[in-house]
Amino acid sequence: xxxxxxxxxxxxxxxxxxxxxxxxxxxxxxxxxxxxxxxxxxxxxxxxxxxxxxxxxxxxxxxxxxxxxxxxxxxxxxxxxxxxxxxxxxxxxxxxxxxxxxxxxxxxxxxxxxxxxxxxxxxxxxxxxxxxxxxxxxxxxxxxxxxxxxxxxxxxxxxxxxxxxxxxxxxxxxxxxxxxxxxxxxxxxxxxxxxxxxxxxxxxxxxxxxxxxxxxxxxxxxxxxxxxxxxxxxxxxxxxxxxxxxxxxxxxxxxxxxxxxxxxxxxxxxxxxxxxxxxxxxxxxxxxxxxxxxxxxxxxxxxxxxxxxxxxxxxxxxxxxxxxxxxxxxxxxxxxxxxxxxxxxxxxxxxxxxxxxxxxxxxxxxxxxxxxxxxxxxxxxxxxxxxxxxx
Length: 391
Ligand code: FNR
What we know:
The protein is α/β, with parallel strands linked by helices and about 400 residues long.
């Protein structure tokens, strides 16, 4: 799938330098700090607050990114790295790279046209990087996957309180062709988010990103009338149904809804990892939701080693605080099977739609690939064997 995409991901720098010889500079910056500053200047404040903000004083979300600096890789020399292979096996798929786009529930409104979910999916098609599509979207999950081309997608489930609605969403995702169901565990209620509270803005309550519900036959039956006829009632029903409190006994039920792998997102403790596997989870996803849900203080990357240790052979996905290719390689070295990119691709989308998100992903992959080239790790297995050291 990805020779044009791959060759080597690091070749992206040759493209950039080559264009420079013709006087063409990259349209978007290649580093996160400048990207974030550009997006902050460009995005409407209510959307920027929602994307950039987090829980409490945002200590945890800052720590998530900062803590990567406590980890490092030791270079190895005299290794032939002229050919690198960044591909991974996940859910029975061979994926060309070890990254994916984490689910972001306001992607739909991040692009000015209100179709950010489709733009993210097109970025997946361009790069081969799967999109984990959020339940909260402006376009139906079926259309989002269709826009991903031949790149596989995963569906993130916010489990509704109504079991028939949950079954309907999962069934639609499986029928559409998604390859895994990612069940988010940490968001049956929204965390305390001062930026949104100070502006009294919660996008869903204003009717944004609820298309998967409004288009759903079970939701429409529960509403008893077309959502268009009474938008306020539709939003009210959505709010009343949004967040089921999941406990371990629910994993068997979730698995009964689908033949797809069930991934539990939000596992940060070794004991929870063991319980999840005992309960039948097919994969674990270590994440603290980018510090948006609980301002708990410990960076996600610092919780990853315990989860990996407890997981054994069960794949562990990871996100929260990943800002660069070096961060990706560190997470892989600690034992993540695949690494989720969150806010950075949102900024790319906001600045330049699908091309912007694709650029962000290509920069991250280029930096990861070049780190592997320089440090003597031709494959992800070599990265894993090298491990990461804490400063
Ligand atoms: C999220 N995240 C999220 N997670 C999820 O399971 N479903 C969702 O709909 C959302 N929505 C969402 C919106 C926004 C604006 C953000 C920033 C994040 C969490 C997301 O999947 C991921 O865990 C974090 O983005 C990782 O943190 P960083 O790396 O983006 O800081």
